[in-house]
Specification:
Length: 251
């Protein structure tokens, strides 16, 4: 039997009838062909997950009544935050989906020297994040922030993993071998407190000047993601996974 569908809402849960939006009613009624008596699961990022039972539903809306709270809301940890340079539409939307699945609490686009996009469709990325949260059984949806200059983005966190794909010789391909950052397993093994965020650069990478400043930043934890140069959207997913394995819910 198919599990009750999950839907995100901003409304409070557990008290009184829940009014379905027309969009929700269309999805539940027309797509899933559910009617009165069917259960749905609602979550709002604050009160865990509740089972509601459809009382009335039609093409314009409907109503559901609370049955029970199925899952408690864990205390928000506030991390990891993903600091990333906006990419073309497809890869940016992929980052929104995969970062949600990997437990990012906030997506903070940062504008670096080589970032080729300074705008993101917040509403579209939020919709993608909601769908990903509903599908992966998360109890929250990451915040999607407006893009800010790199330094402003870094100021929103106390510490961050700096995914540095290169060495310290700017005239060498990918910065050469000198000063290459350590691999996550070793670097993370040397820290006790979990970094607040992971930082991934744009398609064109960080400039030598940006890299020098980031490497000199005491709040940064530079790591290499291995010998291959990953696409930014791949690097974001890998970095969040490594973070969860060492500091989060994959540990
Ligand atoms: N530096 C290359 C360039 O100039 O085209 C590639 C940048 S890469 C496509 C985008 C971002 O992903 C990098 O800035 C870095 O943050 C991250 N990244 C990719 N591969 C990586 C690796 N092997 N180690 C660490 N970070 C990596």
């Amino acid at each position: 039997m198919r599990p009750a569908p999950r839907m995100f809402t901003r409304q409070d849960l557990g008290e009184g009838a829940y009014a379905l939006s027309s969009e929700q009613a269309r999805y539940l009624g027309r797509v899933l062909r559910l009617g009165p008596g069917a259960d749905i699961r609602l979550f709002n990022g604050r009160q865990g997950e509740w089972v509601y039972r459809l009382a009335r539903i039609d093409g314009r809306g409907g109503e559901a009544m609370p049955v029970e709270q199925r899952r408690l809301q864990a205390e928000p940890s506030g991390k990891p935050v993903l600091l990333f340079a906006p990419l073309k539409r497809g890869p940016t939307e992929l980052i929104a989906q995969k970062a949600t699945e990997m437990g990012a609490v906030r997506l903070q686009p940062v504008i670096t020297s080589r970032t080729n996009r300074d705008q993101v469709r917040i509403d579209r990325l939020h919709t993608i994040a909601v769908e990903a949260a509903e599908q992966c059984e998360r109890l929250s949806v990451p915040d999607i922030a407006e893009p800010v200059p790199l330094d402003d983005g870094l100021r929103t966190v106390e510490s961050y993993v700096f995914c540095d794909e290169a060495g310290d010789q700017p005239n060498e391909p990918w910065g050469g071998e000198m000063g290459r950052a350590g691999l996550a397993d070793r670097v993370f093994g040397e820290v006790s407190a979990s970094p607040d965020a992971v930082l991934v650069g744009p398609e064109g990478g960080f400039t030598p000047d940006e890299r020098a400043r980031l490497r000199a930043d005491p709040r940064a934890l530079p790591i290499s993601l291995g010998p291959r140069i990953l696409r930014a959207e791949t690097a974001a997913l890998v970095a969040l996974t490594l973070w969860q394995v060492r500091f989060g819910d994959l540990a």
